[in-house]
C-alpha cells in the first residue's frame, strides 16, 4: 500500500523514497500508487510518499462499523435489490399490480413483457451475487459460518414477510391486498435471500472470522421504533 501527498516538509520516519514516472509513484516493493495520479506534482522533489502495510496507510476518516451496522447496511441494500427485481420478474409476465397498468397500451406487448422480465431477472441475479459476496464478510469460517449464514437470511426473510402482511391488514382498501401485494411482494420478492443463505452455507469463508454479531440495545430500540412507524403510518396507506 502506498500513499502520496504533496508537501514541502521533512519526510516521515518510515519514509522510503519511491520512483516517479509519468506522474505515478512506484513503491520500492513494486507496488504502485494508483489513486489520483493526475494530481501528483510534476516535480517529484515536492512529493513525499510512504510505503507500508495497509493499517499504516489507512485513509483518514474511515470508520470501523460495528457488526450490527454492517449487517443492517447489507440487508437494506440486498432487499432493495431483490424486491424490485422480483416484482419485475413475476409481475411483468402476468401483468400483475402496477406493471399491468404500465403495460396497458404498449405495442408489441409480448416484446415489452420479455424485456421487462429479462430486466427483473438481471436485477435479481445482481442482488443474489452482491448479497452472497458481501454476506461472506459477515459470517465466521467453517461450520459456524454455515449456521450463521442461514440465521442471517432465514429470520430476516420470515420477519419481513410477516411484518408486511401485518401492515397490509391495516390497509382500508381491501383485505385481498394482504395476499396479492404484501405476501407476494415480501415472501416472493425476497425469496432470493434464502438462495443467498444456501450459497454462503455451502461455501463459507476460509479466512479469519469477523467480529461476532451480537444484540445491541440501541439497534433493538431503533428497530422497534421503525416497526411502529411502519405499522401505524405506512400500513394504513398514505393519503392521496
Report on this structure.
By secondary structure, the protein is mainly alpha-helical. It has two domains: 2-56, no CATH class; 67-234, no CATH class. 54% of the residues lie in helices and 8% in strands. It contains seven helices and five strands; from the N terminus they run βββββααααααα. The strands form two sheets. The chain has a three-stranded antiparallel sheet, with no helix packed on it. It has a two-stranded antiparallel ribbon with strand order 1-5. A hairpin with a 5-residue loop joins β3 and β4 (32-33). α3 (109-135) packs across α6 and α4 (143-168) packs antiparallel against α6. It is flat, with a radius of gyration of 25 Å. Mean pLDDT is 75; it is low at 1-11 and 30-63.
Biggest sheet layout: 3 strands, antiparallel
- Termini separation: 55 Å
- Which strand order spans the largest sheet, edge to edge or round the barrel? 2-3-4
How many strand segments? 5
**Which stretches of 5+ consecutive residues score pLDDT under 50?**
1-11, 30-63
- Oligomer, anyone? single chain
Q: What structural class is derived from the secondary structure elements?
A: mainly alpha
What overall form do the CA principal axes indicate? Answer: flat
How many structural domains does the protein architecture include? 2
Rounded mean pLDDT score: 75
Order of helix and strand elements from N to C terminus: EEEEEHHHHHHH
Radius of gyration: 25 Å
Helix content: 40-55%
Total DSSP helices: 7
Q: Which percent range describes the beta-strand content?
A: 5-15%
